[in-house]
Amino acid sequence: MSKMSIRKRFFVTMRGFGILKRYCPGLAQGKALYELINSIQPFISVWFSARIINEICTQRRAATIAIYVIGVVLTNFIFSILKSILDRVCNEKESQMWSWFGKIFSDKQMSLDFDDLENAKIQHMRQEAEENLYMFGNGLAQLVWGTSALVRSLVNILASVAMTVTLFLSRSGNKVIDNSAWILIVFACILLGGFSNSKATVKENEVFMKWCKDTVWFNRVFMFFGKELYMNPEKAKDVRIYNQNTIAAKVLDKLIQHDRENQTALFKMSIFPAMANIIIGLANTVCYLFVAVKAFFGAFGAGSIVQYVAVLSRLGDGLQELMYVLSDNEVYCIHLQKLFEYMDIPNHMYQGSLTVEKRDDNEYDVEFRDVSFQYPNTGTYALRHVNLKFKTGEKLAVVGMNGSGKTTFIKLMCRLYDPTEGEILLNGVNIQKYDYDEYRSIFSVVFQDFRLFAFGLGQNVAASADYDSGHVLECLKRAGFDERLKTMPNGIKTCLYKDFDTDGVEISGGEAQKIALARALYKDAPFIILDEPTAALDPISEYEVYSRFNEIAGGKTAVYISHRLASCRFCDKIAVFHKGEVMQKGTHEELLANINGKYYELWNAQSQYYTPHTK
Ligand code: ADP
């Protein structure tokens, strides 16, 4: 466990509170207030009880006793009401706490540059911070719980000191008892108890941190082998056919053994808290002895004995808890620091400010000017010297074999990545100069690996909780989903998949692709990009989509990516990609006329699957 300076810990803790204030408003404050009242209450009861006993043992004035009784009843009543209100508020906030924490991660993920989303190191940072928080409460949740412990310990210490001052000042007439050495011994015992407890906590924390690390790994492997492999019907097919359960069983056995070893280490560590408890017990005995001897020699009355005995043990508790809070703070600061490292990942993509002119005539032209691109940390070019220009309303097809750079071309056009060399222009202006969100809003894309969610069909199409039903229906129709829609039990309100709704419907890959197409149409952006839109469709549905492509895309500028050349013939212009380069450009007829070109070669290779065999 790397050590952090006290100063750094202070700043990390304060920043943690700042995040709690922003994402979980009122939670830490509510907890602190609740604990303040909760911890003060017993002191008030003890104080009143001591006064009542002293009065009964001395002057026995009924009015004074009545005032004390009313005082204790009233304060307890008010405190109990306040506590129950705060308890309700805090419980509600604490139950929402985990969802609020989720928002911290989703906000950051959404604001990350796209290449960081694909960066394994960064995603590992997120995963580790998320797993630590959700599995053990490490970091922010510890801070919430630690707030209660901090307030409790401070109240216990301050109130105890205030209520035991008289113990050390009162005179018994016996010199031996009034000797200040006693005071030193009592405090030394209390501090020793607290110190040994904090040592025990530090030792426990060391084992706990290791255990957390192992358990995170255990959980990841368990989720994969235990949940994914066995529970996921798609994967369960492979597991059964290839008997993969034997590998999984071996890994799970290893994990169980590993966990057993960890438990043994944890068990061995319990010796430290046990020793701490013995020392604390001895310290308490010395304290009680001090009170008892002083009382024996007549330093104070019976009521005060009750007060000192009750309060001294709380002073010990308070000190021990404060030590615990400090060592716990060391642990959660390490986790908070890791969370902050993830939250502080900067956006390195240039953020322009130009507004994208929303043109009524939809006149937008895009130009790739000598664009080359390498994915981060790969050292190889996915695109090389791409020069392409296309105009509003044009239908551009991008064809090429798998891995030729088609999807990368789209990612650059949508500015998910910036070119390594060269520039991309929209209406003659480098796209980096435009406001990022505005620029992205002019594109509707159906990516090859698009995702639909287990929400209602309408919500999926609109990508929003609220939607215009008429527009959703129209887009589904244009995407060719109208026939299937008729069989959906609740129309566009039908839930997709069964994750959240047992009445949800399962859909085929082809149907999902049509819904994704409808989603792109719903967005109604001037550019529509379809990346292998027919990959999961059967040949008939594929034919249906591309023969109606002009109708589907309407007057929009459309980019149609496919490795199936037959589906690109209807486009105004075809760009043939090969190994990251644009090898040819032209119409279908022009390209086919060049019998030495890549297009001709690909066309002939594929046409045998589409045209009857003549041999
Ligand atoms: P296509 O869409 O034509 O199948 P891609 O654009 O997906 O091709 O890929 C072009 C090249 O870039 C391939 O060599 C591929 O392995 C590589 N590539 C694609 N995505 C990534 C990525 N996220 N990181 C690193 N390399 C990638």
Task: Enumerate the strands of the largest sheet in spatial order, edge to edge or round the barrel.
Answer: 6-7-8-3-9-10
Specify the number of helices.
Answer: 22
Report the structural category: alpha/beta
Ligands present: adenosine-5'-diphosphate
Mean pLDDT score, rounded?
84
- CA radius of gyration is 36 Å
Sheet having the most strands: 6 strands, mixed
Task: Report the portion of residues in β strands.
Answer: 5-15%
- Spatial gap, N to C terminus: 73 Å
What general outline do the C-alpha atoms trace? elongated
The tally of beta strands, per DSSP, is: 10
Q: Which percent bin holds the helix content?
A: 55-70%
- List low-confidence stretches: none
Short description:
Helix content is 63%, strand content 10%. It is built from 22 helices and ten strands. The chain has helices at residues 6-23, 27-57, 62-111, 114-117, 120-136, 140-169, 175-178, 180-231, 233-241, 245-269, 271-296, 302-343, 406-413, 436-440, 457-462, 469-478, 482-486, 509-523, 539-547, 549-553, 588-593, 598-610; strands at 366-374, 381-390, 395-400, 421-426, 429-430, 443-446, 527-531, 557-562, 573-578, 581-586.
